[in-house]
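User: Hi! I have a protein structure encoded as tokens and I'd like to know what sequence might fold into it. I'm fairly new to this, so please keep things simple.
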């Protein structure tokens, strides 16, 4: 048997309005789902040290691959003679922007009192938040016969003074200073 609703008349106008509302809801839900999935697509960061050989061959191609792999942030690990991976700060920043990566931190291993201001300016120009000292000045620790690196009391004082001075300069420039420690900072000293 057929059931009819006496008071249920759906005119063409109501039909079209309801159809538009349903379609709008479907499009909105689809858009929301797409945005949610894409928002989670790129996450986390990659230390570019892990792809340093590829960066030396073709930085743009490597950074594109990093972004395509889903990373959102990068940490640089090579800065020599005023360049990140052989690129000026402006070039490096432009490539990061082009591929959608955000610079978060950079290891500045060749730091000296003489070049700290240039390094800070370059780090700021690219847009990094963290300036990382990955090691004490490499000439400030000694090798022992057993291969264990240790720092003398003098080396510790020099490194501590350097870190404090660089921290003040970084802070004044709006950067945060980080120190990447290793096993030799925890070795017993001469005394």
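Assistant: Happy to help. Inverse folding works backwards from shape to sequence: for each of the 191 positions I chose a residue that suits the local structure. Here it is:
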């Amino acid at each position: 048997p057929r059931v009819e609703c006496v008071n249920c008349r759906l005119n063409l106008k109501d039909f079209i309005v309801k159809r538009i509302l349903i379609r709008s809801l479907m499009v909105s839900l689809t858009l929301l789902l797409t945005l949610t999935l894409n928002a989670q697509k790129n996450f986390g960061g990659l230390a570019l040290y892990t792809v340093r050989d590829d960066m030396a061959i073709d930085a743009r191609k490597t950074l594109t691959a990093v972004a395509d792999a889903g990373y959102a942030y990068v940490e640089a690990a090579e800065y020599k003679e005023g360049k990140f991976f052989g690129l000026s700060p402006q070039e490096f920043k432009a490539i990061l922007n082009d591929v959608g990566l955000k610079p978060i931190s950079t290891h500045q291993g060749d730091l000296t009192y003489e070049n700290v201001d240039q390094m800070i300016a370059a780090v700021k120009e690219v847009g990094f938040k963290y300036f990382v000292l990955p090691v004490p000045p490499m000439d400030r620790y000694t090798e022992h016969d057993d291969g264990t690196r240790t720092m003398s009391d003098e080396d510790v004082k020099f490194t501590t003074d350097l870190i404090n001075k660089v921290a003040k300069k970084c802070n004044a420039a709006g950067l945060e200073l980080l120190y990447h420690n290793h096993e030799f900072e925890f070795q017993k000293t001469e005394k």
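A useful reference point when you look it over: The longest strand covers residues 71-76. Feel free to ask if any position seems puzzling.
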